Amino acid sequence: MKKRAVAVLLAGVMTLGLSASCLTGCGNDSDSGNAEKVRLMVWSPTADQSKDNGEWLQTCCEAFADQHPEWDITFVYGVMDEASASSQVGQDPDASADVFLYSNDGIAWLTDSKAAAKFGGKYREEIEATNSPELLESLMLGDDLYGVPYTTNTWYMFYDKSVFSEEDVKNLDTMLEKGVVSFPFTNSWYLPAFYVGNGCTLFGDGTDESAGVDFAGQKAVDVTDYLIDLESNPNFRIDQDGSGIAGLRDGSINAMFTGSWDANAIKEILGDNMGVTSLPTFTLNGKEIQMKAYAGSKAVGVNSHSDYMEQAVALAVYLGSAEAQRLHYELLNVIPCNTELLADPEIAADDLVIAQNDTFNYTSILQPFVSQMNNCWTPVENLGKGIRNGSVTHDNAAEQTEAMNEAMNSDGIS
Amino acid sequence: MAGQKIHSAKRKRFITNSVVHVILGILALIWVFPVIWVVLTSFRAEQGSYVSTFFPRSYTLDNYIRLLTDTTILNFPQMFLNTLFIAVFSCILSTFYVLAASYCLSRLRFKMRKPYMNMAMILGLFPGFMSMVAVYFILKALGLSEGNLIKLALILVYSGGAALGFQIAKGFFDTIPMAVDEAAILDGCTRWQIFTKITLPLSKPIVVYTTLTSFMGPWVDFIFAKVICRANSDQYTIAIGLWNMLQKEYIDSWYTCFAAGAVLISIPIAALFLYMQRYYVDGLSGAVKG
Questions:
Q1: Contact, A103 vs A260, CB < 8 A?
Q2: Does A78 contact chain B (CB < 8 Å)?
Q3: From the candidate CATH numbers 3.40.109.10, 3.50.30.20, 3.40.190.10, 3.20.20.140, the one assigned to the domain spanning A156-295+367-409
Q4: Nearest Cβ partner of B49 from A17, A43, A242?
Q5: Do B128 and B22 fall within a single domain?
Q6: Of A73, A269, A362, B191, which has the fewest beta carbons less than 10 angstroms from its beta carbon?
Q7: Which residue among A52, A79, A261 sits closest to B231, beta carbon to beta carbon?
Q8: What ipTM is given for this predicted complex?
Q9: What is the pTM of this model?
Q10: What is the pLDDT of residues A5-43, one digit of tens each?
Q11: B289 belongs to a structural domain
Q12: Judged by CB atoms within 8 Å, which residues 37-66 of B form the interface with A?
């Protein structure tokens, strides 16, 4: 009996392969008059589609469909976080979404694989009319625009108002005298802020690959020296593996650097005492130097292989419109970037919005997306770790900084 | 005098044994330390990925409850079922493939036998994920890269190359005397009957081993699942789900649930192992006398 059961099971498994094709669902298109039938695949992060968060994507897509009765649109939703969207679309544009949300650092991926559609004509005018030029620059290669921005993407400072006054948070060194500050010292998205602040540059204005990285000379060595002192400051903690937010939670840390993704958790911890502001300055050899973060944007892109280009572009523009951004802000706290929306008094009064936009406008540089940038992450991280481990000291700061600069400029594996 | 000597020899053995056991105990403790930590974290009431104490300050079951009920952002129960489905079927298929191929290579003599074994050896030297992108495009060309067919695609990927890993099972089959097969042939057995009625019952340990490894592979695989599932979140396996929980947007609120998920995925493997463990002992007992 048992053996027969095994035989039946085996046979079952083999036939299953053939019958599995019956499992696939079929589309149920209802015909409605003479409206053009359109099938649009849309990718967004899972939070944008979750019921708990109000189904931002579905709501917007349906509103879009209502505005366009001339098209009978069937939406297919896929889950893809913004950071991986560009590589996934680039890998196989044919089988990817028509419209997708992506973060701008992957733009080179998209254009290299010719997967991103350019925006032009009336759509481009509409986008340009409602967004700042700095922001649009983050989505442009040459003169071509590759997306509709819907938020900026950067990091800034969260602090405990009961410890620091608004005057204190303007300078990192003043803060260190009054409370405990945590900074992601070994994370190369954050650490260059000190170097960039002191005049170090990446690829000229960020787009000139041949200009290379300039993290060399006295200006960089001074920063390395400053960082060594900073690390040994008793009121300074390195933020890694979530230790910063854990410190805020148990009260051992009073300020940390992160972005909007942690805002809700910090709000829960600090309540009304939550302060948020753009980056502080630091005092280097008696001079106040402004820290400068890497900043980017998140945008709605259109797949150049889409079968329904007109509809896809229209949907992308709608998903980046003021209306959709307002809903995004209300449901998911995604900071809007549409200039009309930022003029709204209610939104303009939100500290988080102010902090993020101030950071983007004043205390950041556009994160370069030339492909050489890929070599710039590990060397900085290694320097941060070296300072933490004590292998980078005042004695060898100059040569270690030089080594970092060399590694950032090299093509090799570093 | 003689009595004393025995006494001191006993004592010496006692001391050596104690030292060895203490060392083993310490090693065991170090080894289970991370496991204990994950289990403790899964019951931790404080949120977040970083804690300053080893033992949680307070305990709760909420992490498990949230993991299994809060399905709007990350649908863990569905991922669990997807993975179980894929793992069970790939396990059955690849166990069959491995054992069948091993049996053929151990018992039959045919022209391609040596070339096949050499080829399998060389192919086995390359890591499977080197073919990842090619596999993806082949599956896409076959239309298996969307909807429920993704499950079939993953089953094919996990079990398709299984027959290349015949070496261990073949080695085991080689130790079963040919005399047993010959006796069976004299009694009128076909090759298939020898395989199912003689060889397999005599090789329980290796059947168990093959089953376990072919279940583990698909159960814990991340890389192929990630490449093939892409944006189809309803087809995600637990490996992708757990990875998602560690993304910067979710890590703070989902970390303890991640630990709970890690505990839950170990259950099917442990259950399978406990069930099959007893067959490890039988094996060859009573096969051939003399």
A1: no
A2: yes
A3: 3.40.190.10
A4: A242
A5: no
A6: A362
A7: A79
A8: 0.77
A9: 0.82
A10: 555 555 555 454 444 433 433 334 444 457 889 999 999
A11: no
A12: 46-52
